[in-house]
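Long-time lurker. I teach an intro course on protein structure, and each term I like to show students one example going from raw sequence to a predicted 3D structure in token notation. This year I'd like something fresh instead of my usual example. Would anyone be willing to generate the tokens for the chain below so I can use it in lecture? Attribution to the forum is fine with me.
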Amino acid sequence: MIEDNIRILRQAARITSDEDKIDDNIWCIVAGNVGLIDDIAYKAIASKNSVKILFREHVVLKEGKLSKKFDFIMLYGNSRKIEEFGRVSISKGGAFIKVSHFYLNEGSKLMAFVAPDDTIRDSVSVIEKSRIPFAILQESQTTGFIDVDINDDVKLPGFIKSALKPFYNANEVVLSTILISVENDEDVEKVQSIATSNKIFVIDFKDIITED
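-- Reply from a regular --
Happy to contribute to a lecture. Here you go:
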């Protein structure tokens, strides 16, 4: 059953948590503001090919008159370097999760979600109410600043928008990244549909092809 698999995965994650003793290649996802992701991207580029950037996304979510802006990046490479990036990410308020080959070797159907925390929680609730067997393996939330601004199509003078921006940004948006495992093949598309309909960015690990 999936509960037994998850227990084994979590136990293995605890045993191998000290990745700086292991020279292996792993994946990670870092989410946060543009400045943080710029810094992580620079470190990856400067890592002398020990860490590859698989992709980077700049996301703008429009909700009413406001836009929520954030970036995230997915990396693959040397576990020592990625652990270093993780410490930097967390210290600067970013969300960080890592995925070793162990997770994939167990045959789990893995997906990562990236979105504002309230959206993630609402979608997880819908998945649970749909009686889809799944489990949350990892989760991480930002503690740093996510940019919130007034939409460009709102007709206000620029100086008023500038004056209002600190007010909107005072209501800080928490960004979440979670790693989930879905038990049944036939439920994967259902989970993806629920997530994407709520404007969640979904990473399906079966679509990730990396050359070691």
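Some talking points for your students: The radius of gyration is 18 Å. The beta strands are 25-32, 51-63, 66-78, 95-99, 109-116, 134-141, 147-150, 175-182, 201-204.
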